[in-house]
Write a sequence for this structure.
């Protein structure tokens, strides 16, 4: 399937402010549902729900690295699903 798009900087700010855990989720196959314009069709969708990442008491450096860390987890998961 297609590669996941790039993550936007700041996309995790809503989670880090209140200190809630982030649960990365890798999804593969959902694009197949939308191949026919205007219609949803049945498709196999594979999902990995990764371990939560705590965001309480992160240092500034950890906050800056969080986006890249979550992106890597999700992209690696999607690639794992694509190999199946």
């Amino acid at each position: 399937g297609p590669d996941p798009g790039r993550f936007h900087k700041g996309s995790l700010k809503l989670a880090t402010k209140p200190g809630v855990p982030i649960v990365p989720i890798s999804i593969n196959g959902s694009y197949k549902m939308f191949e026919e314009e205007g219609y949803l069709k049945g498709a196999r969708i594979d999902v990995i729900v990764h371990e939560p990442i705590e965001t309480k008491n992160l240092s500034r450096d950890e906050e800056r690295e969080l986006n890249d860390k979550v992106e890597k987890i999700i992209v690696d998961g999607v690639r794992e699903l694509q190999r199946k």
In short: The chain has one domain: 13-83. The chain is about 35% helix and 10% strand. Residues 13-83 form one domain.
